[in-house]
Design brief:
Hypothetical protein af1432, 2 domains, mainly alpha
């Protein structure tokens, strides 16, 4: 009887674009696995990410707003799910490899710190300027998950994870899609959350950008996604049409000034940085109080690296609880 996974591989060759990455061409894993009868290698990577501890912790990590009481604000988990959906829509429309795209999208932020980019800034100062969430995401899947064994993902998924942001560029079109989907998702859901918080109103968005991108959350996303599909169809490149691309970047700059830097959303940011810095310094002095995995890795990776791994993996609430336990006298609580 033919394996179901082989049927999937045959369908890829029949249906996918000439520019798609075919699963059978994967560079494979660092540690080979016996083939799965029911899933391709990228489908297995998706499942490994979905079931790992780091993925579950994303539900309690900040996107923009620190520990909001309103449950409708995005978390790092909901951001990841929105990125994944946007990426899959684009990949499907372009007849690219949806399974590869989905696995990269689900894993792209596994290494994000507590308290969003404030936590990343703190660890850059107290550990290393080279610390970034995307490099940490790669470290999580290669060396930290599964009690130090890593998730043993395929090369293409790991490449897409570490190259999803900034000037980095993934080696596959599917990985590049995730870069665009990430930007489309966070720009639009950050506007939505900022309006919910009273920081912005829809009328605050510059009229010349709304006229190009649309006046509502759904319209803007559709405009941006359609732009990527239009500019990338039947081409060995992922891009946006010029007008929409320029407006999208201008909208991101608007958010940087109104939400990411100067708004009440950042009022607690320095406290979050101070909290993580205090935790980092504490475990530098008392590394034996970290979980066994991080203590075990000190001989191989160095003390600072392992403390950074531990602190960066915390959720917002766990970091706050650890700080209270270590630095707030018990009689002051309650």
């Amino acid at each position: 009887m033919e394996r179901i996974s082989d049927v999937f591989l045959s369908r890829e060759e029949e249906y996918l674009s000439p520019y798609a990455f075919l699963t059978r061409n994967t560079r494979g894993r660092e540690r080979p696995l016996a083939p799965c009868r029911n899933r391709t290698v990228f489908q297995r990577d998706r499942d490994r990410i979905l079931h790992c501890k780091s993925f579950r912790r994303l539900m309690h990590k900040t996107q923009v707003f620190f520990s909001p009481t309103d449950e409708h604000y995005r978390t790092r988990m909901t951001h990841t799910l929105e990125v994944t959906q946007v990426a899959r829509i684009i990949a499907r429309a372009l007849r690219l490899n949806e399974d590869l795209t989905e696995a990269i999208a689900l894993g792209h932020d596994l290494g994000h710190t507590p308290f969003g980019h404030a936590g990343e800034d703190a660890l850059q100062k107290c550990y290393s300027p080279d610390f970034t969430h995307y490099k940490q995401s790669l470290r999580v899947v290669e060396q930290l998950e599964n009690d130090g064994e890593g998730l043993n993902l395929t090369w293409e998924v790991r490449d897409g994870i570490v190259n999803h942001t900034g000037d980095c560029m993934a080696s596959t079109l599917e990985g590049v899609i995730v870069k665009f989907a990430d930007r489309i998702a966070y720009i639009n859901h950050d506007i939505d959350d900022a309006c919910r918080a009273g920081i912005l109103t829809p009328e605050d968005i510059p009229a010349h950008l709304s006229s190009v991108l649309g006046n509502t959350h759904g319209t803007r996303i559709n405009t941006m996604v359609s732009s990527v599909i239009e500019a990338s169809a039947d081409r060995n490149v992922i891009a946006m049409t010029p007008e929409i691309g320029e407006a999208t970047m201008a909208l991101r700059d608007f958010l940087r000034q109104r939400v990411y830097v100067n708004s009440i959303a950042k009022a607690e940011e320095q406290k979050a940085k101070d909290l993580l810095t205090a935790l980092y310094q504490y475990y530098i002095e008392k590394p034996e109080q970290m979980p066994e995995l991080y203590v075990r890795n000190i001989a191989r990776d160095g003390l600072g690296r392992c403390v950074c791994d531990y602190v960066s993996g915390m959720t917002d609430r766990y970091a706050i609880a650890a700080y209270e336990d270590l630095f707030i006298p018990k009689v002051w609580k309650g």
